[in-house]
Design a protein that fits this description.
alpha+beta; Alpha-Beta Plaits; 2 domains; ten-stranded mixed beta sheet; 29% strand; globular
Length: 241
């Protein structure tokens, strides 16, 4: 029987979602709890990978387990996992459902605040610099469409494919934060943080819109800006057909 799990987590003390040797990960915690409840080894498949320190307001995984499991599976899991992980739902699903490959859209948000918040540390980038948001949005709009994102990639592109289709990219202001929202069919490793770091240089007046366009069109990683800190990044949406 295949099951779909929806969850959220604060990634501050984890080395991302994916299980790694000698480092705590969210997948490790979930798999351990499920293996106990199912009385057999369970390995989940996530909708993607998040970097060390990155958070998820919404994350999806699937696993294959026993034919019958408690109807209050989500509640039982929440009692077993740490307080920085919340299971939103856990239910049987179509046996062909795949949390990673079936996703058609993913959305990330990056949060920047000008003031420190002792009650929500490590959930935003504390950056008090004045930023030209209109210039940042002008360049963010250039990201929409299919592009080669090699300039914003750390390491090698999966299957040597650096092409991603961006559906939305924009900056907006809330009462507390400056938020960058980006939606795409897929994301490369470190892509969002590299984009944010580069757009910050635009907002600081260190990079022109023409320079940003040149980096997007045929630049390399060394041409783009430094990656923004992981703590401000959230996976916020995953869409399936």
């Amino acid at each position: 029987m295949r099951y779909k799990i929806e969850l959220a987590y604060n990634g501050t003390r984890y080395a991302g979602w994916q299980i790694q040797p000698n480092a705590p990960t969210v997948q490790e915690v979930i798999d351990k709890a499920l293996s106990t409840l199912c009385n057999q080894p369970i390995e989940t498949m996530g909708c993607g990978r998040t970097d060390t320190g990155v958070h998820a307001k919404y994350f999806v995984a699937h696993f294959d387990g026993p034919e019958t499991l408690p109807t209050d599976l989500a509640h039982r899991l929440n009692r077993m996992v740490s307080e920085d992980i919340r299971i939103l739902s856990a239910n049987p699903c179509d046996p062909t459902f795949h949390a990673r490959f079936d996703a058609t859209l993913r959305e990330y948000e990056y949060h920047i605040r000008a003031q420190k918040d002792p009650f929500a540390p490590k959930t935003f980038w504390w950056n008090a610099q004045e930023l030209h948001v209109d210039a940042m949005n002008h360049c963010a709009n250039m990201l929409v469409g299919e592009h080669n994102f090699s300039a914003f990639l750390k390491g090698e592109a999966p299957n040597n494919n650096p092409l991603c289709t961006v559906f939305l990219a924009r900056w907006s202001k809330t009462t507390e934060s400056l938020v960058f929202t980006i939606q795409a069919n897929r994301f490369l490793r470190n892509m969002v943080r590299a984009i944010v770091g580069t757009l910050i240089e635009v907002g600081q007046g260190k990079m022109s819109s023409n320079e940003f366009k040149s980096i997007l069109d045929h630049g390399s990683r060394s041409d783009a800006g430094a990656s923004a800190p992981a703590e401000g990044l959230f996976l916020t949406k995953v869409v399936y057909p």
